[in-house]
Amino acid sequence: MQSFLGYKCNVMDLIKYVQSQMSQKQEQPSFKPGDNVAVNYKIVEGSKERIQVFKGDVIQIKGQGLTKSFTVRKMSNGVGVERIFPINSPNIVDIKILKRGKVRRAKLYYLRELVGKKAKIKERTFKK
Amino acid sequence: MNGLIGKKVGMTSVYNDAGQYIACTVVEALPNVVTQVKNEDTDGYYALQLGYDETKEKNVSNQMIGHFKKAKSAPLRKLSEFRDFEIEKGLGDSVAIEEVFQEGDVVNAVGTTKGKGFQGVVKRHNFRGVNDATHGQHNRLRAPGSIGAASYPAKVIKGMRMAGRTGGNRVKMRNLRVVKILAEKNLMLIKGAIPGHKGSYVIIEK
Questions:
Q1: Which residues on A lie below 8 Å from B53 (Cβ)?
Q2: Cα B36 from Cα A46, distance rounded (Å)
Q3: How much is the pTM?
Q4: Counting CB atoms within 10 angstroms of each CB, which of A21, A82, B117, B181 has the fewest?
């Protein structure tokens, strides 16, 4: 049998095949950077399980397929807190979209430099 | 020792049953062919020689063509010997991935690391270099420092770690766990990284 790899390289096809085999399909709502979301995340402490909510703005979406992840930023007592969630993680119970933001960038790193009113993202309004 | 020859496909991450996110290397191991059986009488020890990756006859030397004809196999690119193979196999048989490995097995992976070219001592031997950019130091941030004493011994002792060609070595990663076997496409997922670039040969041994 001839290997699929080599000069006729289709590495990504094989990786995609692996990902399709390994993914436990979990439908998540589609959101974009700038949206305000609440992520319900399962936390296991010893034998106990509880659900924690992390509410904030999505500042980046990264990767694709099984390894896709997104970063949520929130202000907690005046301190910026960021958390990266793998989007396909079985520990994510659900993601709720609270607000749609109007932004002009895919990665909102500039928010890290801003505080107060300047760090606020304008809400996206939909025309009927 | 059981094992197989495969090719590194690349890396990805998967979730296990506990919800943990595990970085894995994907290895493609098509059925290997037994190209030689060594036994006590003829060679003094028992071993199987496995071959992998079909190639054209013109790319193989005449001597090797004869060797492959004995096993009634197509010319193969990579051969490797596994001593004391625990699965009964004869000449010309093929060894599939699911016969050798199971999910959860602890395996070793042998590969050739990526060549890094001529590198300095900081990258090559993890020297720290000069930690200060000031205090009289000038353009020697990554210098090796002293390589020995002066008029006695009046030479640099052998084995002194210096700059040079780095990478391209045979490296064995031990105690890696098999996360998943996808027998349909002859793929296996191994937790962690495996030396070598994508498409390079890897020997997985159990």
A1: 2-3, 6
A2: 52
A3: 0.82
A4: B117
Q: Which residues contact A64 (CB under 8 A, 6 or more apart)?
A: none
Judged by phi (left if over 0) then psi (alpha if -120 to 50, else beta), residue A110 lies in alpha
Q: Which two tokens stand for residue A35?
A: 């949206």
3-state secondary structure of A57: strand
Residue type, B199: G
Asked if residue B203 lies in contact with residue B28, where contact means CB atoms within 8 angstroms, the answer is no
As a whole number of angstroms, the distance between CA A75 and CA A116 comes to 10
* Residue contact A21–B21, C-beta within 8 A: no
Structure tokens at A44: 């296991």
**A79 part of contact set with chain B, CB < 8 Å:** no
The closest alpha carbon to A104, from A127, A121, A87, A81, belongs to A121
Paired residues of B4 in beta bridges: B204
| Cα–Cα nearest to A59, from A34, A39, A78, A38 | A34
Task: Tokens for A85, please give them.
Answer: 């969630």
Q: Note if the bond before A86 is cis, omega within 30 degrees.
A: no
Nearest to B22 by CA among B169, B173, B177: B177
Q: Which of B12, B181, B188, B190 to mutate to test the interface with A (most CBs of A within 10 A)?
A: B12
Query: N- to C-terminal Cα distance for chain B?
Result: 6
Q: Flag if A3 and B189 touch (Cβ within 8 Å).
A: no
Q: How confident is the model at residue A6 (pLDDT cuts 50, 70, 90)?
A: low
pLDDT tens digits along A61-119: 998 888 889 999 999 998 999 999 988 888 888 899 998 988 999 999 999 998 888 88
CB A54 within 8 A of CB A83: yes
Q: Kindly state the tokens that stand for B46.
A: 């028992």
How many other CB atoms are there within 10 angstroms of residue B102's CB atom? 10
Other CB atoms within a 10 A radius of the CB of residue A111 amount to 21
Q: Count the alpha carbons within 13 Å of B75 in the hemisphere toward its beta carbon.
A: 13
Identify the residue whose tokens are 């936390």: A43
